[in-house]
Every structure is written in C-alpha cells, then in structure tokens.
C-alpha cells in the first residue's frame, strides 16, 4: 500500500529529527533542549496522523450518509407516486359508480 501524504510528511519529519539528533552530542548544552523538542515534534507528528485518519473516517461517514439520504428520498418519492396513482384509481372507480 503506498504511503499517503501524511505518511510521507511523517517520514520526512523523522529523517530531519534523526539528522539533527546526530549533530547533538551527549553531554552537550543543546542535548536537554533538543530532547524536549524532539519529543514534542514526535508527539505532534502522531497527533497529526490521528487527525488525518479521523478526518478520512469522517469523510467516509458523510459520503455514506449522503448516499443513504439520496436512496431514502428516492424511495419516499416513489411511494408518493404510488399513493397518488392509487388515489386517482379509487377516485375514478368511485366516479364511475
């Protein structure tokens, strides 16, 4: 399965994080700040992935709801036509008597 756009974004972010991590040496003054920033970036990437997945699921649900609504309206319209034809037949029969 090919990676989605958000998957590719996450891969790019992780590559950048790995590159910066390689420049920060153990015991450096930047290490503590970088560790915090790295954790925050990784958490943000996970949140982004979950958000995109939830939006995709929501889009699927909306599409399904739309299709169900169109089907229900079509069935209701057909029932109205059937009721009108039956009423006309009944009226015609009553007028003939």
UniProtKB/TrEMBL annotation:
InterPro entries: AH/BAR_dom_sf, GMIP/FCHO2-like_FCH. Residues 22-97 form the GMIP/FCHO2-like FCH domain. Keywords: Coiled coil. The keyword Coiled coil applies. The keyword Zinc does not apply. It comes from the Eukaryota. This is GMIP/FCHO2-like FCH domain-containing protein. It comes from Ancylostoma caninum. The lineage of its organism: Eukaryota, Metazoa, Ecdysozoa, Nematoda, Chromadorea.
């Amino acid at each position: 399965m090919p990676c989605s756009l958000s998957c590719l974004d996450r891969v790019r972010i992780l590559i950048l994080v790995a590159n910066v991590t390689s420049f920060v040496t153990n015991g450096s003054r930047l290490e503590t700040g970088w560790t915090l920033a790295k954790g925050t970036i990784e958490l943000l990437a996970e949140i982004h992935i979950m958000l995109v997945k939830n939006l995709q699921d929501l889009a699927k649900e909306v599409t399904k709801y739309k299709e169900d609504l169109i089907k229900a309206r079509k069935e209701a319209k057909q029932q109205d036509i059937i009721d009108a034809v039956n009423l006309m037949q009944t009226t015609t029969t009553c007028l003939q008597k």
